[in-house]
Amino acid sequence: MTEPVDSHQLDDLPLEQLVACHECDLLMRKPVLKLDEKAHCPRCGYELYAHRHNVVQRSLALVLAALLLYVPANFLPIMQLHLLGQTSDDTVWSGVVGLYNTGMRGVAVVVFLCSMAIPLLKLLCQLAVLLSIRLNIGRSYGLLLYRIYHHLRDWGMLEVYFMGVLVAMVKLVDLAELSLGLGLACFISLLLVQVWLEVVMSPHQIWSALSGEDLHACD
Amino acid sequence: MRAIDAGILICGECHELNRQAPEGVSQTCSRCGAIVHARRPNSLARTWALLITAAILYIPANVLPIMTVSALGQGSPDTIMSGVITLMKHGMLPIAAVVFIASILVPTFKLVGIALLLYSVQRHQPLSARQRILMYRFIEFIGRWSMLDIFVIAILVAVVNFGRIASVEANLGAVAFASVVILTMLAAVTFDPRLIWDNTESDDDHE
Fold this sequence. Notes:
The complex is a heterodimer of chains A (219) and B (207).
Chain A lengths: L6 H6 L5 E3 L6 E3 L7 E4 L6 E5 L3 H21 L3 E5 L2 E5 L1 H10 L3 H30 L4 H14 L5 H15 L4 E4 L1 H19 L2 H8 L9
Helix pairs in contact in A: 2-4, 2-7, 3-4, 4-5
Chain B lengths: L7 E3 L6 E3 L7 E2 L6 E2 L6 H21 L3 E5 L2 E5 L1 H10 L3 H31 L5 H14 L5 H12 L6 E5 L1 H19 L3 H12 L2
Antiparallel strand pairs in B: 1-2, 3-4, 5-6, 5-7
């Protein structure tokens, strides 16, 4: 745990020895973390940073897995509906197209952004950031992309979309015969990999690796 | 002690600490190059603006139908609430509860919650800082889940696509509802949580 220190000492310390809580602006002496430890703000409980091992390698593996899953998850049928001898497929993409064609263009764009475009952009940003750390090239672009990633973060809504799939299934189950598609399995895997990735890729370590302060992120 | 009192600014994007430059100079973060502010500029006014817009759109979002389900040529428009009631009548209580929470309770709670946060920050009242930060975190976390209904509509439009036999169409209510969700999410982003602690701290210090 970190300790807030007396004001007068803190002013004099160099910035490297200090840390401030992003949510409540409390200034503290920076604690030294061992592997797999986390620091929380003593006043508001916000997680200041965590120290994990092998961040870059593990995240890189997860990003690649997520990117491989991305195409089947979005373009293979999530479910199929059979009604009076007719069959219709539902993919994430066909939902967007369907909305667009019924004249709800604004909503179609929002759905496209939240369920397809932003999750993909997030993954691509993460991939580029990790590669730039790993190969030690283009750090300044890495910093820019990682900033973009943090702005996009809240707007990718795969888990909400998954909940939407569940609700839609329940609504449809009485209406017609329903069968699940391979796309659903890919979508769930993509979701899980992405959540795992967000846990593994601890921002503090990525930021300091990008600026060349932390030499242990690749361990 | 707050970082701002020590003349230190936290970068809003990479959380790096920066020494405050002399007054009136726009400053960029030494690590990531983002513009650093002691507090987000005009945080309260912007949040109020977004919140009020959202509150106005909240009315059409709930009154107008969000989608029309037509079977064999007969269409029945559904508002958010009537969708929940239909689910309940079909005995699907758990799912009805999820939809009710995501599309009715959460947006309402967010509108009221953000308004309360803003009011209590401006008036130094009536919630404790801990209550306020818990509320802020809850609002920030829960906001995205209101998009649930929009995604359900997208899925239904795609899958129930049998021409005259059965089809689903989205309506204007969906546009208003999606706008409410996005505006309240933006309001949560523009609100600066550090303001919550600023005035409690000055209360304690009697500054």
